Amino acid sequence: DLQLSDRVQQIKPSPTLAVTNRAAVLRAEGKDIIGLGAGEPDFDTPEHIKKAAIDAINNGFTKYTAVDGTPGLKQAIIGKFKNDNNLTYAPNQILVSCGGKQSFFNLSLAYLNPGDEVVIPAPYWVSYPDMVIVAGAVPVFIDTDMSTRFKITPEQLEAVITDKTRLVVLNSPSNPSGVAYNLEELAALGEVLRKYPNVLIASDDMYEHIIWSEGGFCNILNACPDLYDRTIVLNGVSKAYSMTGWRIGYAAGPVKLINAMKNIQSQSTSNPTSVSQVAAEAALKGGKECMVPMLAAFKERHDWLTAALNELPGVECVSGDGAFYAYPCFKGAMAAMGIEDDVVFAEKMLLEAGVAMVPGSAFGTPGYMRLSYATSLDVLKAAVERLKAALA
Ligand code: PLP
User: Fold this and answer.
1) In this predicted complex, what is the ipTM?
2) Interhelix angle 100-111/127-134, nearest 10 degrees
């Protein structure tokens, strides 16, 4: 029998990708399935971005690049941080990777030792705990629920920090809750973090541009500029520019850390795809007009879906600030059917309603369901009709 590493046996395949696959299998069997599992925008990559990549291919820009990214893309990222976030970075503080996922993976492997603790607020992006575990470290969760709109409080943060804590992960707007922190809330969390100088902060800003809350986007460094030396900012073009398949993410932070992450990357993937880097540079330099229609569509769907979910019996949904996920509580509906396990419930909805949702237990908060609204309003309306019938 083939013996696998202890490491790989501690992690699971991404549950969100699993739901998408399960829906695809049922569809192939001829079942009519509405998939609300996807974590990617339903729009095409904007034309000027695609054109830049096509030109790059035609111009022969098809070889290895610098491991940490082309100088042109790094300059575009530096400009983006300056203009959008009022943050200043030098080129040696930037690492471009094969998607935001690799950025966090590099961080985990370059920074964490076995036994180190990583604070992760739940609900969380499914990949954080598993990447931390691959590095031998220990995820420590802070539970939240809809009563605080899934935001952690300074008291909760303080209560989980120990002398083993090395990293705190913040993700705003959040996948899966869609909720964003405002400046005051981040300042209050920063006040706690300030007391623990050995703790690094990872700010995952992947959904920065998909936001409609009052005050707009901000991150912990906007609230607490003094934490600059121990914060790593993670971002990418995947969600903002509908570029999930191009696989470009980036990290910005302390030189020593970025260098270590670059070493990990140089011994795994080397540079991210040359052509994709040209596309990402065009995206970051090309202005934000292309985001406007996408943002408007997400907002319209958010408003409609949140209201419609709240009409369903036993379902409650808080309003989100951004991203493209609704994260309603189905505990009432589950209880009415005598179901305790949200994975069982999600499977029942998949088979009986033909609607694929990701159960909240995948994100560390059982009893909720994540519905992606990166799909048309008509599809969302059909999905809600089906859920209504199945719950009646
Ligand atoms: N961070 C969050 C919160 C995400 O939801 C995702 C994608 O789902 C990523 C990072 C990584 O994005 P990618 O690797 O596609 O660039």
Assistant:
1) 0.99
2) 40
Pocket, ligand 1, Cβ cutoff 6 A: 39, 99-101, 125, 171, 175, 204, 206, 236, 238, 244, 249
Domain annotation covers residue 17 = yes
Give residue 374 CA to ligand 1 midpoint distance, Å.
14
Burial of 58 (0-12, 13-18, 19+ CB in 10 A): exposed
Tokens 């994709």, residue?
276
At which residue do the structure tokens 């299998």 appear?
Answer: 25
Q: Which residues contact 28 (CB under 8 A, 6 or more apart)?
A: none
For 122-140, what is each residue's pLDDT tens digit?
A: 999 999 999 999 999 999 9
User: Mean pLDDT over all residues of the chain?
Assistant: 96
- Does 301 lie in the same domain as 258? no
SS3 category, 366: coil
Residue recorded with tokens 């904007």 = 46
Structure tokens at 164: 């083993």
Of the chain, the percentage scoring pLDDT greater than 70 comes to 100
- CA–centroid distance, residue 1 to ligand 1 (Å): 35
Q: Locate 325 and state its tokens.
A: 């996920």
> Do residues 297 and 279 both lie within one domain?
no
Q: pLDDT at position 59, please?
A: 98
From 128, 206, 244, the mutation candidate for ligand 1 (largest count of ligand atoms within 8 A of CB) is 206
CATH number at 371 reads 3.90.1150.10
Query: Which residue, among 223, 278, 212, has the nearest Cα to 87 in the 3D structure?
Result: 223
